[in-house]
Amino acid sequence: MPDFWKHCGYHLLSRDSAGRLVVTDDFLRAYLTRPELALVPESCANERSLHEALMEEPRREVSEREIEAIADEDARENYRVFLRFRSRLLAAPTLEACYLAIFGEADVSVPLLFVRQLTQVILRNILRGTADALQARAAELFFRPQKIHLQEGRAMAADLETVQLHATTGGFGSLGELLVQSRTPVRTIELDVLTEETASVYWDRDERFDTVLPLGPSQPGSLALARVMEHWIEHFHGVRVKIRPLARIEDDRWTWHVGLDAEASGILNDLYQGREVAVERLERLICLFKLVFENPADMLAPVAGRPVYLGLAMDVNQVLRMKPQNLLVNLPLARRV
Q1: Strands 146-151, 154-159: parallel, antiparallel or unpaired by DSSP?
Q2: Suppose 224 and one of 66, 138, 172, 326 were both cysteines; which one would form an S-S bond, judging by CB atoms 3.0 to 4.6 Å apart?
């Protein structure tokens, strides 16, 4: 099987008997090598001492006095943020349990950076047995915002950060930024559109985030995304569902829906309530799905046997920011893990 997303930390973790991820010392050490915590020439002696102690013993207790002894204010705050997150990781039996606990709170206080890292490494575990490059690319929607371009009835999803980088620098770093500022032409970005025939190119560039995923009722990207969502739900909740893309919702007994982002939640809520929705707002709804539980007994009794409709939408700037946690906290489950 392809070994992808090698830098997400997956290989630093262990798995329990249920296949869920368990924190290791090496996984914690990886956070200490990130730019926010890595030592720099300006690091003071106290910061160096704390960093070395944590590299030696990543689970050791750290007192506020040790934090206050660090000269740089930003470094002090970065350590506090990391240590709060470390406490969450160590308090939970698995990364999956930590993830669910984060979204079980009314006010999510964990930085988005950490949430996205958790999402990616959990997905890497879920997809560990896949050879389907389209599923790996579709999984990127769970943790990386996408810039959407509408083309001939399809929504073409490209990585937002990659698009912005090339818009600013043309792919040439600081030199490219100077060229853009001086209006000097630079090389345009070339992003390959993945299809069933070309998807294998993804494996050689899986961490470059420079491929385009076509989304729509009959597009391979939506089919792959449906499979990833099925795996995501089963991994966390142990229930099997079938998800398929839709062109529209035609159901007089529409009972339950889940928006997979803030924009889609608002649109689906208004449609469900029978409110008029402006055409330009409806056009932002780029994907619809129908979810069916294989075992209706896994659902809340009042809605057992009924389909759940899912929606994915871009905002006014044509950016898609998926919230995969909505699939875990908003489904009509009879029992929650």
Answers
A1: antiparallel
A2: 138
**CB-based contacts of 21, cutoff 8 Å, min separation 6:** 10, 13, 14, 15, 94, 95, 96, 121, 122, 125
Question: Pick the residue with more confidence: 186 or 111?
Answer: 111
- The pTM of this model reads 0.92
CA distance 79 to 76: 5
Tokens of 257: 């829906």
Collapsing DSSP to helix, strand or coil, 157 comes out as strand
The per-residue pLDDT for 171 is: 54
Q: Are 145 and 320 in contact (CB under 8 A)?
A: yes
Percent of the chain at pLDDT exceeding 90: 87
Q: What is the DSSP string of 30-85?
A: HHHTSTTTS--TT--HHHHHHHHHHHH-TT----HHHHHT-S-HHHHHHHHHHHHH
Count of H-run helices and E-run strands, the chain: 13, 11
**For the chain, the helix, strand and coil percentages under 3-state DSSP, each to the nearest 5:** 45, 15, 40
CB 318 within 8 Å of CB 149:
yes
pLDDT of residue 184: 42
| Half-sphere exposure (Cβ direction) of 83: Cα atoms closer than 13 Å | 16
Strand pairing of 308-313 and 256-259?
parallel
Residues 6+ apart with CB under 8 A from 273: none
88 bridge partner residues: none
Residue in the block written with tokens 């529409």: 254
- Interatomic CA distance for residues 166 and 172, integer angstroms: 8
